[in-house]
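Form 7-S
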Amino acid sequence: MTGYAANFGVVCGGRYIVARGAFYELLRRATKPKMLLNHEGPEIGEWLAMTANDRGLFVTGQLWDNPRAKEAIQLYDEGCLTGLSLGPKGAAWDEMRCGIKILTKINRIDEISLCGEPHDPAALITQFEVATCQDQ
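Output:
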């Protein structure tokens, strides 16, 4: 599974915008946030890679074989699970006069969730594949 967990310059939920370079320090550390479904429950998989490019924070992960992950697959197949959502923690920001925060440095991400409606409307799952083991 791949997708953008955050996009630079996009207003997220009317509250904040992630600035280019906000993940620089975070990505230098070997941190792996939890993979959750809708920000709750047990972990459904693991994030294998996180990189920042010109568009935003691109993540690659894999689902585990557990009931909650199977629920995620079903929701994706039904078209109800299209996005990714992260909760930036310990962020530094500048505030615009309209009250929207521009996140200039994100120190921590505890989890990145698969969700139906992310705060960042461009934080979408770009590839979702389910591998199956076959007996030979």
